[in-house]
Amino acid sequence: MKFYNFKGERVFTPGPVEIPDRIREVLGRQIIHHRTKEFTDAFLETRELFKKILNNSSDNFVFFASSGTGSMEASVQNFFSPGDKVVAVVGGKFGERWAELGKKWGLEVIELRVEWGKSVDPERVEEIVKKENIKGVLVQMSESSTGAYHDVKALGEITKERDTLLVVDAITALGVYNFNPDEWGIDVVVGGSQKAFMLPPGLSMLWFSEKAKERLNDRAYYFSVKSELKKQVEGQTAFTPAISLILGLRESLKILNEVGMENVEKKYERMARGTREALKELGCKIFPENPVISLTAVLPPQGIDADRLRKVMLEMGVRVAGGQGKLKGKIFRISHMGMDLLDMVHVLSAVELALKELGSKVELGKGVGTYLEVISS
Amino acid sequence: MKFYNFKGERVFTPGPVEIPDRIREVLGRQIIHHRTKEFTDAFLETRELFKKILNNSSDNFVFFASSGTGSMEASVQNFFSPGDKVVAVVGGKFGERWAELGKKWGLEVIELRVEWGKSVDPERVEEIVKKENIKGVLVQMSESSTGAYHDVKALGEITKERDTLLVVDAITALGVYNFNPDEWGIDVVVGGSQKAFMLPPGLSMLWFSEKAKERLNDRAYYFSVKSELKKQVEGQTAFTPAISLILGLRESLKILNEVGMENVEKKYERMARGTREALKELGCKIFPENPVISLTAVLPPQGIDADRLRKVMLEMGVRVAGGQGKLKGKIFRISHMGMDLLDMVHVLSAVELALKELGSKVELGKGVGTYLEVISS
Fold this sequence. Notes:
Two copies of one chain form a homodimer.
Chain A: E1 10-11, H1 21-27, H2 37-53, E2 61-64, H3 68-79, E3 85-90, H4 93-104, E4 108-113, H5 122-131, E5 136-140, E6 142-143, E7 148-149, H6 152-159, E8 165-169, H7 181-184, E9 188-192, E10 204-208, H8 210-213, H9 225-232, H10 243-259, H11 261-281, E11 285-286, E12 295-299, H12 306-315, E13 318-319, E14 321-322, E15 332-335, H13 343-357, H14 366-376
Parallel strand pairs in A: 1-13, 3-4, 3-5, 5-8, 8-9
Antiparallel strand pairs in A: 2-10, 6-7, 9-10, 11-12, 12-15, 14-15
């Protein structure tokens, strides 16, 4: 079946995600210079709007002109010293990244291995921090390679009263969940622009608690939190900022705040639940045990290769992501980030058609119907 | 049910239609001056690409900086003289426009009234042209107010051998059907940018046969075909052209020619057929007897007000058109123009949810399933 599309591909990958028109218009504007009052005003407004996303009024955060990994590296560099003992929860590709970064910067990394697709048992973390002098716990709130949710609130209860920083990669969680690091006991939060902020990649966010602030060192240069913080609270930056992305972020934060993070979370929860019920109806399995609401990682029905399925969907103009690392070819991943509720019927219809084309017994419309049923009830 | 959309409204009206990114990028570029070689080259290329859409190699066509009605008026002004007797097929709002224009410019208009939603019986036209000296037959190929198709090929058989021009408003037909005015015996073809050419409004197209060319007079000023033609075959215009829209049209014609008009027509035919089967499954009726493939005009199920339904859909971020003139509140209209096959599941899902919300007994997913069944079989 030929689709003869006029429009470009639709992008349902968990980053980058589709950019709403309101933001595209801002990104398309002529550049402004960053050493100007115009930029400073825009930057300070952006910072105020960002605080609301975190239900927080603290000025303890910086933006870097980097992808999310930059702020992950900054977390390890700025808040830890060589020899510091940390626990890295490794249950997917991004957990592995925490472990790699820790070692790179001389930390003594205890890798807490979790089967891919499973969530970490907080008791295992508690056991370690009780026994040893652990300076930090590095974890993903949303492990996007497996779609698993790690219960950072439970981990926060464990680290809160100790000299242990809870460092959370929230790259695919910030802007999705109604985040509250103070209440949850999180010390460092890492975010990235191309996920729920619906921007191109190239801007990362690093928020930290007062407890983390006391640990700030001078190891980093480009990723120095100290030098950036000093400038950024005044509306400037130590190094050239990603100007257009900052202006785009302001628009993105306006959208998120207009909807309200409580409603944003509700919307994603409904979208994720509907998508999963729909996929199960089509004979798929949801890969993670305790899934996040930012994306859905899916095992296709028995006998259907995930990458073959993705290829057929791509021929329809619908791009979803594949598995990473050891999950390559086994799963496919659909983003909810940046999507509106009705967008999911587009990707679900493509899944239905592709499954049928690959010989799966599919009653067309069954998945979409289930989805519409869930979101409207 | 709240949708909390991040993205803007989706536009499923039969004009304007959504603009593909490839075209938006061109439209967003800095203006170029029109009295330059750059514009002339682009304009001549656009003209060559336009010929292919009509399966024709003639240079007998002009573009006007106007909406479609401009080229309708130009047809009446340039090819007819006061006192000329013409037949106007009046079976909807746009048929009425032909009659109004004819009278405005002094023609003796015989209004051939057709019940709204019905298509004209060619025999009725034949009867008149046999009896009287009819200079022209003015008709819509696609009467977008009712969604009805008038059989211009059958009319062409009638006018071909006579001193009668067949003037076709193809505003919602050109770029949809694999048009062939020579073969079909059409003398004047009117098109508009904001329909199947997927551009903003503001550019109209006027093609004419050799037989029509012999009739060209000097009545018009802004809409003078003679003076525009003389310039346009050389890559220039008599008056300032809609520069950005011309450049956008070049991109649009590239897209249509890449797909090929034969495939474009097949795609729309499949989309229209699927949409209709889906809507019938949901208890709706298709309004016109012999519908076009560019749009679908729909009667909602008994007891559901069309405008109320549209309002509920609009709250979901989905815009469809209402009825015009005497059909206001009675029907709603969905465009296929500019759409890709999977786009229809978005609007059909919205129809399903809206019908359910308004108390209609709807098995969610049933319409979408029917649609996917039709397009994939």
